[in-house]
Design brief:
alpha+beta
């Protein structure tokens, strides 16, 4: 990483602003920019557009993962598309690609804003999210200067960067203060005075515990914990945080299976079925061949509530209670069930079921 920064990134940033002619640029950097990085960045941006099409079709909006990908692309693309313009006389088609990339990248800013905004709305501002917000402002500034202030880019960019650094570290709105104010606001909004922690929903408990734990371990953050919180309520939050860190920081994963062991005399037909769930917040599976939907909400909730049992106990209980009545003449015998469940967002990452429909 140090070699990459020293040998490529810093020189390329200088070249991208200085307007040094192609004769003055090392041939290795020229080849790296024109024939390796520029094509890779173009391909990466094309893939992101395909990903956006998937988001629109499936209505599955991403969160902070997509932000990191887009920010990484920008960090590399910014100097590359500027340097590539120096070769547009020699390679006109590469020059056109380099000129078009900022315009093609610009819509990604909206996706970044949505990604970080969703996390802030759910869990408030943290130092990393605050830095991410300022980096989005930096990207907007770069794109604006690229489109409208081409001759004065470096001067304005330098001044803007200084302002952002001052805001981040020196101003009253520096990262520590803003993060503390945000987490305090979550506590005061979700758990106002005379509110019991037990009365909150699971989602609210997760957000309150996250905000409390953040402030508790910050030197200045401790002072932002609302004074009206009693020691009893604090103890409840801390106890929940211990459980929450184990069970909701990562998705809950459950996988159980059993052999087909039951008397079949009362059934006239047995059919193997398998299916999964495409409706994130519902425990409804869709059978692969017939397309039939079966609601397994009660059964899946049983498994979620038994999450503290070890695997052996879980499978023993499942083997004794894995039959679901799906109609007056049909039962579903579940032989295998696996799912990943995000307790914070209360949705399934996936749900897969195999079994047999038994017809009387």
């Amino acid at each position: 990483m140090i070699l990459l920064v020293g040998l490529f990134y810093v020189p390329s940033m200088i070249y991208s602003f200085s307007g040094i002619s192609k004769k003055g640029v090392n041939s290795f950097i020229k080849g790296l920019v024109l024939y390796v990085l520029l094509p890779l960045i173009t391909i990466a941006i094309a893939i992101i557009y395909l990903y956006i099409a998937k988001i629109i079709l499936l209505k599955d909006m991403p969160q902070n993962t997509i932000y990191r990908i887009l920010a990484s692309i920008f960090v590399v693309a910014f100097p590359v598309w500027n340097m590539a313009k120096n070769y547009q006389e020699e390679k006109p088609w590469l020059g056109k690609i380099a000129k078009g990339l900022p315009y093609v990248y610009a819509p990604f800013i909206l996706l970044e804003i949505y990604s970080i905004g969703t996390r802030i709305q759910e869990f408030g501002v943290t130092p990393m999210r605050y830095v991410s917000c300022l980096f989005i402002v930096f990207q907007i500034m770069v794109l604006f200067l690229t489109f409208y202030r081409k001759g004065e880019k470096i001067e304005y960019l330098f001044m803007g960067t200084v302002v952002l650094v001052v805001i981040l570290f020196v101003s009253p709105w520096h990262y520590e203060n803003v993060s503390n104010w945000s987490q305090k606001g979550i506590l005061e909004r979700l758990m106002p005075e005379n509110t019991s922690f037990d009365s909150l929903s699971e989602v609210e408990k997760g957000r309150v515990s996250s905000a409390y734990e953040y402030l508790k371990y910050e030197e200045k953050g401790k002072k932002c914990i609302p004074s009206y919180l009693s020691e009893e309520e604090k103890a409840k939050i801390e106890e929940y945080s211990k459980f929450d860190n184990r069970d909701t920081a990562y998705p809950l994963y459950v996988s159980v299976e059993c052999e087909l062991e039951l008397a079949l005399e009362e059934y006239s037909k047995i059919t193997y079925v398998s299916g999964g769930n495409e409706q994130e917040k519902k425990a409804i599976i869709q059978l692969k061949k017939s397309g039939r939907e079966i609601d397994l909400t009660d059964k899946i909730e049983e498994l979620i509530h038994q999450e503290n049992k070890n695997q052996m106990e879980l499978e023993e209980d499942f083997a004794e209670n894995n039959m679901v009545r799906i109609s007056e003449t049909e039962d579903l015998y579940i032989s295998r069930c696996s799912f990943s469940y995000d307790k914070t967002q209360q949705k399934f990452n996936y749900l897969r079921v195999e079994g047999y429909i038994l017809e009387r």
